[in-house]
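Weekly structure sync, notes
Attendees: PL (lead), two postdocs, one rotation student
Agenda item 3: pending single-chain targets
PL asked that the sequence for the first pending target be pasted directly into the notes so everyone works from the same version. It is reproduced below exactly as submitted, 338 residues in total.
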Amino acid sequence: MHHPTPRSPCTRSCVLRGAAALLLGLALPVLHAQSRPAADYPTHPVRIIVPFAAGGPADVYARYLAQHLQAALGQAFIVDDRPGAGSIIGTDAVAKSAADGYTLLLMSNTHTVNETLVPNKPYQLLRDFQPVAPINSSDLVLVTRPGLGVPTVAALIERARAKPGELTYASSGQGTPYHMAGELFKAMAGVSILHIPYKGSSGARTDVLAGQVDMMFDAVPSMSEHIRSGKVQALATTGAQRSPVLGDVPTVSEAGVAGYEAVIWLGLMAPRGTPDAIVQRLNDEVARIVSAPEAQHQWPAQGATPMVMNVERFTRFVGEDIVKWAEIVKRSGAKPEQ
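Predicted structure, written out during the meeting:
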C-alpha cells in the first residue's frame, strides 16, 4: 500500500520568503510604471505658473502653449498667474512643488537676471529647476509718451544729459528685461533716467500711453499696435538687427549707442527631479508647437521669434544667459528693490 511522503512543515523563514516574493510580484507593475513615467503622462490637469502679471507676453504665450499642449496630450493645462516680488513669489511656488510634471514654470530672462540681482532668493535657478524647452524671443522697443518732444535716441540722450534724473522710464518690475534694458541703456549712453517699476508690463504700458511716465522699453508684440496708431513714438528697437515688424525703426545700436542689445525670451521649466522621460516629452511637444506653421507665421508677424532647442542645449543656454546678465547687472549698478 502506497503511503504519501510526509511534507516538511514550512518554517517561519519559508513563510517570510513566500510573502516577500508575493509582494515583489505585486510591486513589479509599479516599478515598471516608474521606469516609464511618461507613458501615460499626463493623467490629470497640469498647472503652468506664470510669475508675472496677466496681459504681458509671458501670460499671452503661456496661454497659447497651454491650449496646444491640452489638444496634444488630452489633459487640461491651466495657466495660473502669480505675480509679485519680481517673479520670485510664483517661481518659489514651483520650486516647492512635487517634481512630477504637473506643476511647470513659465520663465523669462527675468529669472537669469535675478540670479545676480537678487542673490538671497529662496531658490537657485539651475539647482532647483530643470530647464524643459525655450518658447520664443522678442526684441524690445524704446517708446516715448505723446508730446515728449524727443524724436530720436540722440535727442533723448541730449535731454537726459542736460537734465539728469528728470526723465522717467517705466518697467514691469525690478529685474525684468524691461528694467534691465533701461539700465543697460543708461550705463552705455552715460545718462541718468529715473526708473519707475510697476507690478506688470500692463500697468507700465498704460501709464506711458497716458503720458504719466516719459518712456518705456516694451516687447514689440505688445507695443507695435500702439506705435502704428500714433499713441506713442518709437525711437529704436533693441535687437542686433531691425525688427521685421518695425523695419523703419533703427536699432539702439544704429541710433548711436553702439553695441547695445537686449531682448526678452521665454521658456518652460520644471522642478528639479522631474523624471527625464516627462521632461523629454514636454520638450518634444513644445518644439512641435513652436515649429508648427501657425507659430512660424503668426509669431514673427507679432515680433516674436520661435525658439527650438533640445533639453541639453536649453540647459546650456540658461546657464550662459545667467553669466551674460551677471556682467550687465554689475556694469549697470542695478540693485534689487528694498
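Discussion points:
- The longest helix spans residues 12-35.
- The chain has two domains: 46-137+264-332, 139-237.
Action: rotation student to compare against the earlier draft before next sync.
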